[in-house]
Amino acid sequence: MAKKYYPYSFSMLVLHAGVKHIAGNMFESISNIGDAIFLKMILHMQNDEDCIKILKNCHQALPDNGKMIAVEIVLPTIPDLAQTARYPFQMDMIMLSNSRGGKERTELEFAKLATDSGFSGALRTTYILANYWVLEFSK
Fold it and tell me: GO MF annotations for this entry (predicted)?
């Protein structure tokens, strides 16, 4: 099935024990085959309505103790003049000009998307590197 929909993308994936790559349309449904779903740089390309659609499908596919894990850029709530702090705002401008409603979001905006999608647990955020964060949505 994967090769039918994403031949190039799936041919480039590195296989790991315990990880299964599944092709599909996340706007329609997500297969419920595990206790976690991982999305990388997906939410920032979507408007709020489409983010909620994706997150609701993730929520529905997860078991009661499941988690949805996303890697995204998080906008700071207090602007900083440091060079590293400028990158999220530059990406926000790129999303504004090159996507249909996509944007970078603050932690509070991600938390609102989480609750609007049915996630009731606290949103956990962990800074990784170069303005990228891991966001953990819990049921």
Answer: O-methyltransferase activity
Confirm whether 107 is a catalytic residue. no
Looking at the DSSP assignment, which residues form a beta bridge with residue 75? 106
Relative orientation angle of helices 48-61 and 107-116, to the nearest 10 degrees: 60
pLDDT in tens, 86-109: 888 888 888 888 888 899 999 999
- Which of 44, 49, 59, 109 is labelled catalytic? 44
Beta bridge partners of 37: 68
> What are the start-end ranges of the E strands in 24-131?
36-40, 67-75, 105-106, 124-129
What pLDDT is recorded for position 1?
A: 36
Q: Can you list the domains of the chain with their CATH numbers?
A: 37-138 (3.40.50.150)
